[in-house]
């Protein structure tokens, strides 16, 4: 092992540089195997450990290239499920679809490239600077350039030991601990045995936090919920001639569920605007009131703001509530770039003049201060599809809620790892906020997830069915729900500040000599 580390740090020839490049590329690629549906969690410790080892005594420029190789492997393998939506449903040739994913991986890989450049340029080589930088760059992926918060190390531990940090400090804290353990392992293999102590301390911290009961059930009747999974294939979902068939499928599946507390239809289960289907919505509302059932459904919401006199309108990806003792409308806040809107639409219209003639209509983002749904005596905080990938957005919506509900349409990624990774994020959001998560999807994975982030019931994929459950409302708040990401971000910032201030003077001298 030590001889291999020597090869990784050898800078005597360009050929020797191949070792860390290949190692970093493979290390990035295998990280996705730590996530769902494989759950080889130990790879989430090994993967960043290998990158850490590859960066030893490297110049900042070399670190940039090594980090880029790692990032490319991470995103090309970890997000290859995008191939199905691009090739199958986008009707793009296989070679071009693969090249588009490679281009995406090159762009997203720049996060790792910049991270490793900054690490080797400004900070001493220690796990106490590498792990904080890792966390800050994961956090950046939740907002920079609209964000693509996927493939975080912390998700690998949703049900494995280190997950106890999630309700206290969130997924970034889990990532921090996992990366710290991986880097400490490298140091221990280099016979720096002092790193055994912090490793044991963070493991002891996970054990201690696992004993904390953050929330408890309310002394109220459980909520009887039916989740309707219509299993409408993506290639026919929006065809005008199939709209009535889609409604018939959902109506048929729902017929036996009237009388339960809550019935949930998934994202875009009604493939029409609410303004075009008012008689149907009114009939569903009356049926719900007659049987004592509340009904939530995904639908595209057409709105003409009262303040606009020009006749302009807005479209929202939304959830509507109706029926007995149900009220609310939630408009999706975080939209999918190139899926729900075109970024820099004005610039692209100049670069690509025909973009306005492609039949694409931008959706509008909903406001950030939306109230929870009121269903019976409970408050349900909502998230639509991709939004559950954003920890702080879900946390903000979850404040003062009794349950969390999310609807999705992952038919774009049927047969891939994408829906499983998506479900794992929902588990982490439930754990962070200490609330049951109700998840209804079109083709899967429909599930009930408890307040500890465990899947209690799960429907098979690609089948038309109804999943039923009885869910207790929870009370109390986790530290994460109360404080958000600030504790782990502040800790990371302080560690980096200390690392920069107290870096050895010879570090700057050696860096200048290698430029």
Short summary of the structure?
This protein has 19 helices and 16 strands. With 515 residues, the protein is an alpha/beta fold. It folds into 2 domains: 2-213 and 483-514, no CATH class; 217-477, Carbon-nitrogen hydrolase (Nitrilase/N-carbamoyl-D-aminoacid amidohydrolase, 4-Layer Sandwich).
Question: Topology, pairings included?
Answer:
Blueprint: H1 2-9, H2 18-30, H3 43-54, H4 60-78, H5 82-89, H6 94-122, H7 127-140, H8 166-169, H9 171-189, H10 196-210, E1 216-217, E2 223-229, H11 234-237, H12 243-254, E3 262-264, E4 270-273, H13 278-291, E5 294-303, E6 314-323, E7 326-327, E8 329-331, H14 345-351, E9 373-375, E10 378-384, H15 391-398, E11 403-408, H16 418-433, E12 437-441, E13 447-449, E14 455-458, E15 465-471, E16 474-475, H17 479-483, H18 486-501, H19 505-514
Q: Could you characterize what this model shows?
A:
- Strands 2, 3, 4, 5, 6, 8 and 15 form a seven-stranded mixed beta sheet that branches. Strands 7-9-10-11-12-13-14 form a seven-stranded mixed beta sheet. A two-stranded antiparallel ribbon has the order 1-16.
- It is built from 19 helices and 16 strands.
- The protein has two domains: about 1-215 and about 485-515, no CATH class; about 215-475, Carbon-nitrogen hydrolase (Nitrilase/N-carbamoyl-D-aminoacid amidohydrolase, 4-Layer Sandwich), CATH 3.60.110.
- The chain has about 525 residues and is of the alpha/beta class.
- Helices cover about 45% and strands about 15% of the residues.
- The chain starts with a helix and ends with a helix.
- Belongs to the CN hydrolase family. Apolipoprotein N-acyltransferase subfamily.
- Catalyzes the phospholipid dependent N-acylation of the N-terminal cysteine of apolipoprotein, the last step in lipoprotein maturation.
- It is found in: Cell membrane.
- GO terms for molecular function: N-acyltransferase activity.
